[in-house]
Amino acid sequence: MSEVTAMERPPEPDWPAMTDEELLAYREAENRFRASSAARALLGDPDPSATIDWQQVVLPDREIPVRVYRPTAGRDGDGDGADRAELPLVLHVHGGSFVGTAVQCDWANSHLAAHLPVLLVSVEHRLLAPETPLSDAVDDGWDVLQHVVRHASQWGIDPARTAVFGESCGALISALTAIRAREAGLTLKAQVLVNPAVDVTESMFDYASMAEYGYRPTRAVPQLRVFQRLSVPPGTDARALSPLYADDLNGLAPALVVVPTQDAVADHGRRYAARLQAAGTPARLTEYPGARHAFLTLPGVEPQADAARAEILGFLRASLAA
């Protein structure tokens, strides 16, 4: 594949026929586009009331880039000019699985950082590849959360007011992070799961929404099959990577599950919200009729992105207030 300029987006590949080399070349080209100024017409502009920078989370065995969003100094998001030494923490995980970058989420993330206000840390997790399964990305999300909470004073956050937030594959990672947090005794105030894909088992495609929207408005099923193949190498327990099949969903952080209706994985979100509720975990399911899968990251073409961002802000504000 030829090198892509900042003004060009690579064509969608032939997913079933794509080689591993073509996958990696497409990823590089697509992520360069998503991080370019040309993509802002689709992805939206960052909120000017937030500062954004890249940092490295240094762990014993690896370094993980994170995109950090802070309210601009001297602002608290409500316009009264008060500074807050210890902000709540929102750990964010972007979607995309084998292609994607935290930059594509600047529009929503910078707004939340500025107007809640919070410190929002978005994990540039390892992307799925033949030698990088989903479990690696899941570990990245959990390890960054633990690191920031353990070093709360360095990050300027109040670890007692922490939430997780993700979209698509990032919502899957966030849901698994919430489960790990409960098991480790780390209390979360909230989890926000947007268009979550929470089933990577053999039943992943056995939903009415998959039949209805698997090939319209986009060809989601071929792409999801690549996602499933990369997520679960032979011999892997797919249930361990599928929050929908977790043995115990009781005692988790209250959840907001956001489901766009024109989405192949819409029933994943509906089913997960129902399982949370049945287990006794507070869960609010909100559907956005006519919205497509990645709508929250596409305010330039998805009119309901504004309403979803406002709902997420309100839910997190209430959850992190105490």
Automatic annotation (TrEMBL):
Q: Which keywords has UniProt assigned to this entry?
A: Hydrolase
What InterPro entries does this protein's entry cite?
AB_hydrolase_3 (IPR013094), AB_hydrolase_fold (IPR029058), Carboxylest/Gibb_receptor (IPR050466)
* Gene3D superfamilies noted in UniProt: alpha/beta hydrolase
Can you name the source organism? Answer: Actinomadura yumaensis
Under what name is this protein listed? Alpha/beta hydrolase
The molecular function terms in GO held by this entry are: hydrolase activity
PANTHER family in the record: ALPHA_BETA HYDROLASE FOLD-3 DOMAIN-CONTAINING PROTEIN, ARYLACETAMIDE DEACETYLASE
Q: Where is the Alpha/beta hydrolase fold-3 domain?
A: 90-296
